[in-house]
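During the reporting period the student researcher (J.K.) took over the structure-prediction task from the postdoctoral fellow and processed the backlog of single-chain submissions. One of the processed entries is reproduced below for the supervisory committee.
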Amino acid sequence: MADPSSWIGQTISHYRIVEKLGGGGMGVVYKAEDTRLHRAVGLKFLPTELLHDSAALERFRREAQAASALNHPNICTIYDIGEQDGQQFIAMEFLDGETLKQRISGKPLPFDEMLELAIQIADALRAAHAQGIIHRDIKPANLFVTNLGNAKILDFGLAKFASAIEDGASMMPTATEDTLLTSPGSAVGTVAYMSPEQARGEELDARTDLFSFAAVLYEMATGRMAFPGNSAAVIHDGILNRTPIAASQINRGLPPKSDEIIGKALEKDRKLRYQSAAEIRTDLQRLKRDTDSVRVPAATSAAVDVRQLGQPHPAPRLLHWSIALLSLAILAAVLSVWNVFHVRDRLTGNLQGPRIHSLAVLPLTNLSGDPAQEFFSDGMTDALITDLAQIGSLKVISRTSAMRYKKTDKSLPEIARELNVDGIIEGSVQRSGDRVRVTAQLIEGSTDRHIWASSYDREMRDVLALQSEVSLGIARQIKIALGPQSASPVSPRPVAPAVYESYLKGRYELHKAETPAGLEEALRQFQAALDADPTFAPAYVGLASTYSNLATVFIGKPPYEARQKVFAAAGKALELDPQLVEAHVVLADTLAEDWRWSEAEAEYKRAIGLSPSDADAHAGLADWFLCQGQTEEALSFARRAQELDPLALHGTDIGWILFNARRYDEAIRELRTVLAVEPESVGALWFLGFALIGAEKYDEAVQTLERVASATQRSSGVLGLLVSAYARAGRRAEALRILGELHQRRKTGYVPPAAFLTAYLGLGDKEEAFKWLSQAADERSIIMQFLKVQPFFDPLRGDPRFAAFLRRANFQ
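J.K. obtained the following structure tokens:
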């Protein structure tokens, strides 16, 4: 078996190893290139000597399982776990920087840096705990600081899932380079950050991480360990019985509030400790706000000697001091005002605004006084999100999540926390006659502090230029280079007011449409825009998106009819404007449905290249990877889509991927998490039906799918799955009754072959299943995309006829 140290320059799976980054007792990490996605990754290998150590293998797998279940900017992302020649490896996000242990290196961190990193770590713990995951090994060596100043939690090898039974693993060593004992191989670096309950071997909950985090926070503040010692016994005694010296006594620059926060988190009795990571994060944020607000530049000038001012007689001593103090007070006041208004900074070029790496655009307020103009303000919001999403280094929350805050009474910091963004754009749109006025302001999310505001006024025919001007103004304020579309600026073309109004009405109908009638109205509006101006590319995108929606399982139209219209409309849009991201995405979706896999992949990647924050492109590429049987890649892109559009129920997509990976219990948990937020989500209920059947919870599947059938006016696709659920539940008479309903319906209208295919698979009738599979293939039914992975096809996989269908769908 080859040693990983000899693999530099070689390709492991689809990762080309570039260089060794470091290693310890539980892993060796290399930088590698993902040859499929052309991105840098970190590859962590289990050391050769531990390959036959069952505990080490379990910990290695636990790390991948726990971290991959989390999606947070301050947690190192796990992409994949694999094996090459018997050698276990984990592929993870490549990080450039240093560990917190290296950053501290025996010296306290600057207060501002300490607070910023601590807030990020606390929020990451909050996210992990919300998913029922306890890290159990928080320490400086497991925290990373990137070159951009972002914290990342590493190494979930000792993580415990809250539903799991405690197995005593909390006392396992984790990294031999942390040795504090004189005996060889004694890894007690972990011991120094244990909670009292962990040291006693008790059952653990999330509060153990908060104690460990507080020990790290103490070290960040002082440069010293909270519980030092030359042996495990001394360290254990300190953790269980001793209180560290107040951090402010070691680092005199710390405010007293720091001691309160650290002290509360280091409480021996966990009932008296912070009860959640959200609580400690809030106190840290409050401390940051309070310290930022009270800083005043120190006056360093010496006291004035009045005798140097040419006075003929020396003044009394009291007068000397009075004049000196008055002079200092005036000087301090002048300097304070000078800096409050940033005059000094603006003149010297030292003005440093907050770092904005992520942004949400809230729905612009309609100030026209006419509720019927809501379509216009919503359309302008949509356009602004689209423009900003093309800034490569900026994460922009997608439309679906942003629009949920329309007319909300939540505070901006609350919204920023929910969406996990640094900045918020809010503003208004006022349309009066042929003129449009847009006001926008940029707010720092965590503090509600105003950063910038501006107003823009244009004629309606120049509305596209106005949109571009607003997005460029925001980009300049956050000092981020614009993406490829803006690299060579082109003045947006004028557009007739009637054309743009019809287009925005079409977008409005498309976004809220829940019935074929709503989609037909969207088609009418887009067509009206094109009738007036056949060169207006965005309206062709609207047509393509609407036709694509008409082909979904709940609408019940023959997909091949709508698909040709999608190709025509999307192709025309890209012919007129190759930079239209949505056109690339809808074209990619349709190419995948047409089994043109390589073309679809290329279109998805073009879309992401043009707009790195486009959630739909990431979700589409996730589906593409799923269809190819590459589950982990699919989950990675689906979770990125969820991060970009956190309120858009992308958990539904994740649940679908997990179902097709036969990870039924995980799929059920994911989908129930979605339903806890949106109890009537038809998509989540629909996929939950699949997962429940996979998990052999047939009666519950029947109940769930009956709800979906009711919500979709007994859609044919849903009835086909309901037949399968009843049949598998042993209720064959009910299954046959619904199957009869489908056959009767087919006499007067369209019923997708996939409905009968699913039904007969559930009934165990392979011959009928193959008959309907052939018809589904003839019309390129959407179900054919999942031929390679869908569990319900398993009974057919051994038949040579099934292999022929796989080849027909270009899978072989």
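The committee noted the following: Residues 162-189, 295-352, 481-490 have pLDDT under 50 and may be disordered.
J.K. will present the remaining backlog at the next meeting.
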